[in-house]
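Lay summary. Proteins are chains of building blocks that fold into shapes, and those shapes determine what they do. In this project we predict the shape from the chain. Here is one chain we studied, written as its sequence of building blocks.
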Amino acid sequence: MKKSTITVVGLGAGDLDQLPYGIYRKLTQASHLFLRTKEHPVVTQLTAEGIAMESFDEVYEQHESFADVYADIVERLFTAAETEGNLVYAVPGHPLVAERTVQLLLEQGEARGVQIEIGGGQSFIDPLFARLQIDPIEGFSLLDGTALKAHEIAVGLHTIIAQVYDAFVASDVKLTLMEVLPDDYQVTVATAVGVAGQERIETVPLYELDRLDHFGNLSLVYVPPTKEERISYRQFSYLKEIVEILRSPDGCPWDREQTHQSIRKNLIEETYEVLETIDDEDPDAMCEELGDLLMQIMLHSQMAAEEGYFTVDDVVAGLNEKLVRRHPHVFGEKSADDATEALANWQEIKAQEKAAKGIDVDNQSHLAGIPRDLPALMYAYKLQKKAAQIGFDWDDVADVYGKVEEEYRELREASEGERAGELGDLLFAVVNLARFLKLDPEEALAMTNKKFKRRFSYIEAKLKEAGRSFDETDLQEMDKWWEEAKHHERGGDGK
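And here is the predicted shape, written in a compact code that computers can read:
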């Protein structure tokens, strides 16, 4: 049985005079001619010649997303081919340029028993390059305005955004571009390029993009390339380039001399500076300090790249892969109705990963997996949590209070040589108490540190008001001011 055939042709970017004669013959001789849209100069002229055709414009009104529109059009075309035999399907421009319905036809044709033939046509890209005097060898990107994502935009390339059918799509395009470009960046909107009497080309600031009145099926947005620093500074690729330059023979002498070990402490310091901004609820400072922390990651990655071990792209790839793999309830077929189930999925997958690496989890210590360079307070907390998971724990918080009191007595009775060990035991017991009270000991101590610093600053302020120094006061007076500071913190009620 002979397959039905759908022949796809392009209506080009202009009017009938620009249409190749072979395409014109296919259109005029087709027994069944279908159009994705009749909103095209060629269609108007074919209608005047009495050519019968059927468009899918009404399908756009029946769906809320373009994906559904395209799927419906393709289904209707297959149904028509199966019932009516061979047909011609005409689309604006070239069939293989920015035409999702054509891609769907090619993907599904064989399974549906329908042969798909591409009959050619002129793309809108050619007249656009000519009209805007763009040399494509400089590099260009062609993107879909109905599904535009900020990460797709390469600021160093000529960028053409097609499928900008109306002001709503234009508004989405504008907002997406604003994630990458300044609001006043100059962009060009081109409609019906090369069509006499219909061509409209306007260059406007980005913030005015969706205010123009000539969007339609033949509209697109052109974004010129740039090397402006204010834009380049927002690109991750530029950060990679800067760090590579800093470490190069012509870069910074200090940066060139550093090793993983020499800047090891910087990673810890920058992490704590980020934590400080979180505690201070200072988003501007947090933004800056996160940048400093990222710089440490970039430096370590660049050093590893120079040694041939890995690059920052490998770091990103590994992280992306891990995030997808450990969230099957988001990216896979598993489900998680709450945080507990999500964490259970995470732990199960971690165990599978260890097994895949040849780590014998069954013969591994239950206390394994805690980073050895954690601060001692945090390390103790994690040790106790892991031990508690297998039942090595107190039954009641009263027992924990009793243990704290016991360790306190032992410290008071300890000899000079025993004090360090007994103090450690007391601290360990206090961490246990914090865990039972569902408090983070590190955070609790940090709060007290801040409180001490605040009250001590009050004492300093009082001395400064009096024009005196610490040598000119005593503990009794300082204790009085300390109590005053406590009184002010508690709202003056003295409690």
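What the prediction tells us: The chain has a mean pLDDT of 91.
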